Amino acid sequence: MGSELELDYLLNHPIANNVISNVNSETIDRRLFLPKKIQIFSKKYSLLKDQPQYRFSSDKEAKKILPDIINNKVQKVTLNGPLSETQKQAFSSKRNLGVVFSGGPAPGGHNVVAGLYDELKKYNFGSKLFGFLLGPDGLIESRYIEITKELVDIHRNMGGFSMLQTGRTKIDSKGKMESSLKTCMNLELDALVVIGGDDSNTNAAFLAQYFKASGIKVIGVPKTIDGDIQVTTDDGDVLCATSFGFHSAARAFSQNISNLANDGESTVKYWHVCKVMGRVASHLTLESALQTHATLSLIGEELADYVDQDRLEKARKNKTIDYNAFGITLRHLSRLICDVIVKRATFGKNYGVMIIPEGILEYINEIQVFIIKLNKIIAEYNTIHDLDFHLALPGLTEKHDYLRRISQGMIDKNPFPIWNIRDDELFNQLPSFFRDGLLVERDLHGNFQFSQVKTEKIIMDMVKEYLDVLKEQGVYKIGIKNTEYKSIMVANDMDPDLYAGVIFRNPGAKYLLVKKIIISQKTLKQELVSNELMDAGNDIPGPIVELFLKSQPKFKTQTHFYGYNGRGSAPSHFDCNYTYNLGMTAFHLIAGNATGQMAAIRNLEMDFDQWEPIGIPIAKLMHLEERKGKLELVIEKSLVDLNSNAFRVYKSLRKKWVAADLGPDHYRQPAPIRFAGETEEDRPITLVLNSIGPEK
Description:
By secondary structure, this protein is α/β, with parallel strands linked by helices.
């Protein structure tokens, strides 16, 4: 009974209540934080002004499918110009708005809702904001809640999409469109705001077109941690430098990667292989590399442009053309990684941190070919048989057999079948789990699910295999500090100078490398005997064995995937400010009678006082792209620009960051995402670097 009283006392003690509460001081600070407002949002009214100087070429299919919004111009939210009484009254009219999260979470989403809610209530407290539950399904199935001040206040500046939750359903049929319209009309909505990525904003464009006759407006908001929603005009003007959530996710990843760098440098034991999200673009990898100065980072877009100069030179000498010299193969990629590992090991650094993007395999020659061919085969099967390939052939063995029959001409009678015997041979050389991965069902957007494949395992297995070859050849060895060598020898009354020239290929160097021919204790003994430093009948001296074992590398890896932890992280100051202003921008676009526009902030790469709220015509961003073997109208993803300042800076510094030399590593320690006090990084490093203009 006494112990129960003690526990009861403990659980009810104010100190215990404080530390075990769901809400800590950081959460309280976050909820109370007031994001900065772009100056125009502190004024009473605004105008939308067309900006015809920003030019986009329109896709023919987009013109056909989206005729009512294809001619939208970029619009600037401005104060310049007279405002009629009708326009003022329209601003303050009572409205019902809807908002929906679509796709994966991204830090800052709740602040979009907060900015939209605050601005809506500022102009008419009787206006209502409805949130659709579990993403587009809530819109289609009319499941919603009214968003209240209490609900908004709990979620201000907080991570995740938990206020409404989210989903990935695509509104891709007339039936779903009609159901969505019915939901909006029943709620008497004036407008719908769709918060999502490229596919979700594509949905927003189709909804804007479908809703046009009803008078219900649709506005998109750019969300994705991948950073691949970037908008640049035909003339190179940057209108949207990045999507929201990118900065917070990159900082979350970088903090963890930096911790691994500390671990590796401390234990001198592991290569930490970090796969970060980015199915198509490598923006997160580039930003994380700049944040952490990781030992080695692979940018997929650069690998796509890779040219093997050695192969080209060999072909020139033979007066032939080697088409395999263009683009990188898995085997060659593994060799490049091995080169870095071996070079660092020679200076005693048999550890490091490597960052690879989730979608790196899409940039590998043979993998690209397989994905393209398999997409085509699956699409043709669905069309010819009017069946779903994955339902008709549920087992991986059945799918393998189907491919084999194609290669043998049993299905495709073409003299050049899409899947030939050579494809079958190469395919069977891939690791079994990867072959199976290539044949699993695509995601809802028709994309190969790279997150389901152990990309890092595929690459590192090949690396380990080649390192074993280099070890047998005596190439892969760990350098031994000369001072350590001398210390061991002197401590055992042995002459270091007498043995150095026999054991090491570089006697006198600061890091000593055992000769290539010495790959075992047997070959070590032979070398000592042949140089008359020991008799054949004796055992190798203990200190020499100790030194030899120190030179023998044990390659150990630890693999890590950074994705869900980043998209669920707390938003940085940058994303809190960015998203709150995006929410207010969405309201002002609606108040200005815009539809089919994506709310955006121009000049994100500049100081906050230079930020400009704008609306970007979504239809102008769309083009035809192959999805599930069919051409569909979608927003093009933005890839890493290899001519950008950010990539050029990274490229010029990466050899230094490899640190295959006598000096220390160059790891950078990014600060954690904190909310109390000032933060030194108020924007992504890539944006800061890209904002630097030419010297005047």
